[in-house]
Amino acid sequence: MAELSKLPNIGKIVEEQLNQVGITTAAELKEIGAKAAWLKIQEIDESACINRLMALEGAIQGVKKTMLSDEMKAELKEFYQEHKK
User: Fold this and answer.
1) Contact in structure between 4 and 15 (CB atoms under 8 Å)
2) For 3-45, how does the pLDDT look when each residue is reduced to its tens digit (9 = 90+)?
3) What is the spatial distance between Cα 67 and Cα 65, in angstroms, rounded to a whole number?
């Protein structure tokens, strides 16, 4: 079982939050997707910000969040605006 913290952008705290919401492997994260994973984290941590959402997407793509395409960043920003608490 791969540790989530070995993925780009995923530190111990985000890994712990993912584990809390039932996501324990990179395969599970990829299957559920960044948006759904972020929504689950937001349920347990209302401070979940856009940086965390972008970090999750970067982890899925295997890149640093700053390397996400402009289109993906815009899509995630729009999603974040619609769902932030």
Assistant:
1) yes
2) 899 999 999 999 999 999 999 999 999 999 999 999 999 999 9
3) 5
Q: Are 57 and 65 in contact (CB under 8 A)?
A: yes
29 touches 18 (CB < 8 A) = yes
2 touches 59 (CB < 8 A):
no
d(CA 67, CA 45): 25
Residue of 11, 80, 5 whose CA lies nearest to 47: 80
Closest CA to 55 of 67, 65, 46: 65
Q: Is the pTM of this model over 0.85?
A: yes
What digits encode the pLDDT tens for the residues 41-84?
Answer: 999 999 999 999 999 999 999 999 999 999 999 999 999 999 98
Distances (CA, A) of 5 to 8, 53, 67, 68: 8, 15, 18, 19
